[in-house]
Structures are given as C-alpha cells and as structure tokens.
UniProtKB/TrEMBL annotation:
Name of the protein described by the UniProt record: Acyl-coenzyme A thioesterase THEM4
Entry EC number(s): 3.1.2.2
Enzymatic reactions: dodecanoyl-CoA + H2O = dodecanoate + CoA + H(+); octanoyl-CoA + H2O = octanoate + CoA + H(+); (9Z)-octadecenoyl-CoA + H2O = (9Z)-octadecenoate + CoA + H(+); hexadecanoyl-CoA + H2O = hexadecanoate + CoA + H(+)
Superkingdom per UniProt: Bacteria
Upper taxonomic lineage: Bacteria, Bacillati, Actinomycetota, Actinomycetes, Pseudonocardiales
PANTHER family in UniProt: ACYL-COENZYME A THIOESTERASE THEM4 (PTHR12418:SF19)
Amino acid sequence: MPISIDPPADAPPPQKHPKAPGPGERTTPHYEGCRGCGDVPGSLRLASWVGEDGVSVHSRFDVRDEHQGAPGLLHGGMLMTAFDDALGTAYTQITRAAVTARLETDFRRPVPVGTTLWFRSRVDAIVGRKIYVSGVGFLGELDGEVAGTARALFVKVGAEHFLRHGRPEDLEALGAPREVIEAARAGN
Ligand SMILES: CCCCC/C=C\C/C=C\C/C=C\C/C=C\CCCC(=O)SCCNC(=O)CCNC(=O)[C@H](O)C(C)(C)COP(=O)(O)OP(=O)(O)OC[C@H]1O[C@@H](n2cnc3c(N)ncnc32)[C@H](O)[C@@H]1OP(=O)(O)O
C-alpha cells in the first residue's frame, strides 16, 4: 500500500528562494550532467522558466525521434522523466536539494514525435523534509490540450546523499570543494 502524497491542506504557501530567478527568467539546470535538463548527449534538453507568479515554473520539451516508445509516439517513461525534471525544477526555486521519493503520472493523450510539450509545475506544500509538487503537460502550447498530469513527493537530502551513493568523479565535474571529493573517495 503506497504512502499518501496528498499535500496537507493547512501547509503555508511556499515562498521562492531569495536567490532564485524572477518571473519570466530562465532557470539553470540543477546539474549539467542531468539527462532531463543538462546540455549533454541523451538529455531531453528540458528548458524551464519561472512563471508569472514568481513561484511556479513552466518548461518546454521538444519531442524527437529518439524519444519514441511506439511508432511515432513519445515513450511514457520519457514523459515521466520530463515530469520528474519539470517538477524538480519547480522545487529548486524554493528550497535545497531533494530527491524524488514518489512520482505519479496520468497519461491522457498520445504525444506524436515533433510535438512541443509544455509543462506548468508548482510546489503545493513543504512540510519538514517533504516537498509536494504537481504539474500538467500540454500539447503544443501552454494551457493547450492536456497530455498528462503528475504529482510527486521529493524528500530533502544533504550532500552526504550524493557522497554516499554517487561517484566522486561526478562531484568533481560539478566543481564540488576538494574536501567533499576527498571524503567521497575515502568512502565517508
Ligand atoms: C555534494 C554535492 C551535491 C550536489 C547536488 C547536485 C544536484 C542535486 C540533484 C538533484 C536535485 C535537484 C533537482 C531536481 C530536479 C530533477 C529531478 C530529478 C530527481 C531525481 O531523479 S532523484 C533520483 C531518484 N530518486 C532516488 O534515487 C531516491 C531514492 N530514495 C531514497 O534515497 C530514500 O528513500 C529517500 C531519501 C527518498 C527517503 O529516505 P530517508 O531514509 O532519508 O527518509 P524516510 O524514509 O524516513 O522518508 C522521509 C519521509 O518521506 C516519506 N516518504 C519517503 N518515501 C516515500 C514514498 N515513496 N511515498 C510517500 N512518502 C514517502 C516517509 O514516509 C517520511 O515521512 P515522515 O517523515 O512523515 O514519516
């Protein structure tokens, strides 16, 4: 039985981080090696901007041949990747690193190759380490026909999460401080 990811009704509205970009500005990838939003081979190259309200985020994903699952159609897992990244980008405007604990996606319309998918994502609540985020994906234009919807729970983690489970060389490429990389190499 999955644990509920319904946001608590009485949680205060999330406030954007003071250093986050303002309305209409492009967001930066959370990690250049990310296959969702980084500028690397195999990436979906999701691009995101802060919404008019300064808190929500909208994102663009151009669906290409390499994203097919069935002939001429977007793979469902690729759509989930796009949602994961779009929803993740929404929370990074508000708070520090967190990882996806649960991601629920409803697939409402098939998405043909050549489509531009647009997403609107917002943080619904933050309670302790738990970040509740939801989003909608639209065919062709923001607020166009709905291709899918998603909800996610992200759980805040510290640097030790990446040190313990990731690879030192990736931390190095990220420009992490020397002591962080050495600790990772030593297995601490
Ligand atoms: C040093 C350099 C650092 C560099 C950082 C660079 C980049 C940052 C990276 C990413 C973040 C940035 C942006 C995000 C953008 C894009 C999205 C991509 C994100 C991903 O692609 S990320 C990969 C996939 N992801 C995982 O690889 C997670 C694997 N997993 C775990 O690592 C653990 O599972 C963890 C940590 C999640 C929890 O473990 P834990 O031991 O810390 O905490 P615990 O289990 O106590 O859960 C705490 C509370 O969350 C509730 N909870 C937990 N899981 C739940 C579930 N499934 N459903 C409902 N509720 C759940 C519990 O019920 C409890 O709730 P309560 O406190 O109320 O009891």
